[in-house]
Amino acid sequence: MTLTSPTIQEQGKAASTAARRLAATSTEVKNAALIGIAESIEANRKSILRANEQDLETAKRYGLDFHMMDRMTLNNARVKDMADAARNIAALEDPIGETLEKRDLPNGLNLEQVRVPLGVIGVIYESRPNVTIDIATLCLKSGNGVVLRGGKECILTNTVLAGIVKNAIEEVGIPRGAVQFVESTDRALVKEMLEMDDSIDLMIPRGSAELVKFVGQNAKMPAITGGVGVCHTYIDADANLDSALKIVVNAKAKRPTVCNALDTILVHQGVAREFLPSLAFEFGLHDIELRVDGRAMSIMGAVVDGAKVSSAQSDDFGTEFLALIASVKIVDSMEEAMEHIAEFGSKHSEAIISENTEAIEQFLNEVDSGAVFANTSTYFNDGAQFGLGAEVAISTNKLHARGPMGLKEITTYKWKVRGQGQVR
After folding, report:
1. 304 falls in which pLDDT band (50, 70, 90)?
2. Angle between helices 27-43 and 155-171 (to 10 degrees)
3. How far, CA to CA in Å, does 102 sit from each of 96, 117, 418?
4. Both ends of the chain: CA-CA distance in Å?
5. What share of the chain is helix, strand, coil (3-state, %, to 5)?
6. What CATH superfamily classification does 8-227+393-418 receive?
7. Element (H, E) at 327
8. Largest pairwise CA distance in the chain
9. In the prediction, which pLDDT does 93 show?
C-alpha cells in the first residue's frame, strides 16, 4: 500500500489539534523534548552536513547568489550553534501560565490575566536551515504548534532537521503533529498556506523583501511583515573614532548577509576628514565596497590604495545590500542623520557612536526603530544575543511585537474570571 503525503490543509489541522495538547504540556516535558532535540542534532551531525552538501551542490546549479549560499551553508560550528540554541531555550523560564495581572472587583469577581500560547504559527522561510530548529524549539517551549515551509534550495537539510525534531518530541510524549514540515517545494502551496486562517493563527515570513511583501498582501491571518533590515550607524561629532571604526567593521564585515548587518554610515562633517580615510583603509582590508556621496568622495577619492570607493547612486541609500557593500553620507548634524534614517531606514536596527550623553539619549528616544543602539554594533540585534534563546523573527512591526521575537512575543493572554454566582 502506498502512503500519500498529507495535504497542507491536513497538516494545518493536525498542528491545530496537537497544539491544544501542547498548550497543557508541563515545562518539564517540553524541556526534555528540547534537550532531546539538541542531543539528536549532535548525534546526527554527519547526516545533517551530508544533506546540506547536496543542497549546496543543487544551489550552485541554480546559480543562487552569494548571500543565499552563505545563509544556507552549514558547518560543524553552525550545527553546534543549533544544538546550543535548543539547550539555551530549555534553560529559559517558561512563559506559559504566568500571571500578568490579578484583581478583585467590587462585585466580588476575581480576575486573573494569564499568558497562553498563540496556537499555531506558520513560517515561510528561505535558505537558512537554522530557522527550522530555532522556530520549532521556540514554538515548543511556548506551547505553540508550528507549520514550517522552507525554500527548495534547502529542502534536504530542512527535511532531516524536521525529522529530528519530530522524533525527539514523540519520544517524550508530545504529539508529532505539533511540528509540521511541508516537504513539497511546490510554490503554489505558499499561497494556499496564507489562506489557512482556520488553522494558523500567526504567519511569519523569513526571507527577501519580495517574500515579506507577498505575505503581507496575501495572508488572511495576522502576519509579521517587517524584518527587512536597512541599518544605519551615525558617527557623531563627539564620537571616539577608534571605537567607531571597530564597531562599523563588525557591523558590516562579520556577516554581511544577515538582516542586522550595517548598510549605511552617516558621518558628521566635523569628523569626516579624520574618520573617512581610516574607514576606507580598514574596509579595503575587508574587501568592502564603499559607495559614497559627493562630499565624502572629495575626501576619500584618492587617499587610500586598495580601497573600493565609488560615487553613490540614488538607490544606494535605502538598500539592504546583504553583501560586502556599504554607502556613506556626510551630514551636518545629528538631526540631519535622524531625518535620513526616517526617510531611508526600515525601522530594524539603527546606531549612534558618540561620547555625548545628551546626543545619545536624544537619538535613542527619537529614532523610530525596533532596536536602537549606542556605541555598539547593530549585529547585536539578535534573539540569542538579547538573552531570548533565539527568535522566530526580528519584527519591524509595531503590532503585535517589535524587535527580536522570543518566547513571550509568541504568546498572548486570556482572562480567567472566577465568581460566586454573580449575574449582571
Report:
1. low
2. 140
3. 16, 19, 11
4. 60
5. 45, 20, 35
6. Aldehyde Dehydrogenase; Chain A, domain 1 (3.40.605.10)
7. strand 325-331
8. 84
9. 97
